[in-house]
Amino acid sequence: MADEKPDIARWVDEGARAIGLPIAPEYRANVIVNVERSLMIAKPLLDVELDDELTPAPVFKP
CA 4, CA 19: separation in Å to the nearest integer? Predict the structure, then answer.
């Protein structure tokens, strides 16, 4: 199931409805395309497996 393509149109519709953002019908297809592109850009980063034992670096304070 993890390899199934997500229903981006549904994500866009439900997300817009959840935050009260109207999307004009003439822009909806382009919004869907942009969400798909954003997912493709983020995929390599999200695919990186992180070790649960990693310790974050200390915060630099000048």
Answer: 26
